[in-house]
Design brief:
Blueprint lengths: L4 H10 L3 H9 L9 H17 L3 H16 L6 H20 L3 H8 L8 H18 L4 H13 L3 H14 L13 H11 L4 H8 L3 H14 L5 H10 L5
Helix pairs in contact: 1-2, 1-9, 2-3, 3-4, 3-5, 4-5, 5-6, 5-7, 7-8, 8-9, 10-12, 11-12
Length: 241
């Protein structure tokens, strides 16, 4: 009855039990009992579970596997094309919630695998969520999109997206859940105060090289490309004032 496991994993995720959702989904990962397009959706959903568990880097590596599954998917039928598109969109949400907005936009700019009312509703919901990650003030739009998604028969997916978004949105995910150490958090606070690495090193008793290493770790863990972007993302996530 392996085909019931993804359903059970969704139920666990609806209730915020993401570790259980991941454990269940992992038992069918790569199973040849599922078509490639269904495996892609399962894997993308599992990446969301793992991200909600606070394992950002693991979740991001899982999205790469999703696209490997998509490459071998036979997307000739409408259902298959829809599943491929859903998998892509879920990956975009993982990237956005992990702070990698540029990667999310690259996925969202790809030509849709399916054109129909259902996938359009899912796409609009994900787009709204990605915007809300950067601009929390538009979160009410997310609620509207989720209600519209439920209206077209994807209530289970809508519940999953809501549960993950509530767990992972910037105001909910703290420094420890992003993997920042205490030293990295202190350096982040100092950078936000406008202090230079050499000043931070002098006053903290660390070497400049150690401080620079902390800064690079902060940038990597926040999924950014530089110090300025990292500070901007940290403010959005509520890590600094």
């Amino acid at each position: 009855m392996s085909y019931l496991i993804p359903i059970r994993s969704y139920v666990a995720a609806w209730e915020g039990r993401f570790d259980e959702a991941h454990r269940l989904m992992a038992t069918v990962a790569g199973s040849d009992r599922f078509f490639a397009h269904d495996r892609a959706v399962n894997a993308a959903s599992d990446a969301l579970f793992v991200l909600a568990m606070g394992q950002r880097d693991v979740a991001l590596s899982m999205t790469k596997a999703v696209f490997s599954a998509i490459e071998i998917a036979d997307a000739g039928l409408l259902y298959a094309r829809r599943q491929v598109e859903i998998a892509k969109l879920l990956c975009a949400l993982v990237e956005s919630l992990a702070g990698r907005h540029t990667f999310a936009q690259r996925i969202l700019r790809r030509n849709p695998s399916s054109y129909d009312a259902t996938t359009d509703s899912i796409r609009e919901t994900i787009l709204s969520m990605c915007r809300a990650v950067k601009e929390p003030a538009i979160e009410p739009e997310v609620d509207e999109r989720l209600e519209a998604l439920q209206a077209v028969g994807y209530g289970g997916l809508a519940r999953l997206l809501r549960s993950v978004f509530e767990r992972c949105k910037p105001s909910s995910m703290g420094a420890s859940e992003l993997g920042l150490t205490r030293a990295e958090t202190e350096v982040l606070q100092d950078l936000a105060a406008g202090r230079r690495p050499k000043d931070i090193a002098r006053d903290s008793g660390r070497s400049v090289y150690t401080v620079q290493a902390h800064i690079q770790n902060i940038i990597r863990k926040l999924g950014c490309s530089g110090r300025s972007e990292a500070l901007r993302v940290a403010r959005i996530r509520g890590l600094i004032a």
